[in-house]
Amino acid sequence: MTGAVTLRAAQPRDVPAIVALVNGYAAEQVMLPRSAESVELALDDFVVAVDARGTVVGCGALKTYSPSLGEVASLAVAREAHGRGLGRAIVDAVEALARSRGVRELFALTLTPRFFEAAGYAVTDRVRYPEKVRRDCLACARRFGCAEVCVRRVLEAEVLDAAA
Ligand SMILES: CC(C)(COP(=O)(O)OP(=O)(O)OC[C@H]1O[C@@H](n2cnc3c(N)ncnc32)[C@H](O)[C@@H]1OP(=O)(O)O)[C@@H](O)C(=O)NCCC(=O)NCCS
Fold first, then answer.
1. For position 121, which CATH number holds?
2. Spatial CB neighbours of 161, under 8 Å, sequence gap ≥ 6
3. Is 163 among the domain residues?
4. 60 lines ligand 1 (CB under 6 A)
């Protein structure tokens, strides 16, 4: 990875890099795989972190379940870029996207709950999100031995005029 990293909305040319990043971790069974088609269809929901050479070194997406409920999905940072605050920055960007769309409650299913707890999320029970369970968990090969932990955060309303 080279130089400064910037965050931006995903563009069509990022699709292969997003798929490679996510599916690299999916092969290690730490996240769900994504097809290129599913990323293309959800491109407006993705943010990417890009290094100085334009290489995608991280990604994350807002997956919406209702007008007020969303999931922090497909969150991945390239191994060589870990520990530099990129994961947290991507979560912040997904939260900003959620706020801009009126989504106030976010959840994630994760093997790294402490990462999310550091970002203000609290551990909860996934039964709170039956639509997620129906869409992703019921067909998952690991459904009887799933080690993922559900975390959630209710986004505070933005303080628009703190100085007033
Ligand atoms: C989880 C992941 C996104 C974190 O990315 P990252 O860029 O290394 O994380 P950051 O540098 O932003 O770390 C933010 C904070 O979380 C902590 N953290 C990061 N990874 C952690 C982990 N695996 N376990 C516990 N805490 C972790 C950091 O110590 C840091 O805490 P601090 O603010 O007190 O220093 C990255 O490890 C990853 O891509 N993992 C593989 C895919 C995955 O598990 N995705 C999540 C699926 S929901």
1. 3.40.630.30
2. none
3. no
4. no
Query: Whose structure tokens read 């909305």?
Result: 9
| Cβ atoms of residues 8 and 43 within 8 Å | no
Residue 164 predicted with pLDDT over 80 = no
Averaged pLDDT, 58-73: 97
- Domain-embedded: residue 161: no
How many distinct structural domains can be found in the chain?
1
What's the domain range around 16?
6-154
- Domain assignment present for 1: no
* Ligand 1 pocket test target in 56, 95, 112 with most atoms within 8 Å of CB: 112
pTM of the model: 0.93
For the chain, the straight-line distance linking the first and the last C-alpha, in angstroms and rounded, comes to 43
pLDDT of residue 139: 82
Alpha helices in 62-163 (DSSP H): 86-100, 113-118, 130-132
| Residue 47, CA atoms < 13 Å, CB-side half-sphere | 24
CA dist 97 and 1 (Å) reads 26
- Say if 160 falls within a structural domain: no
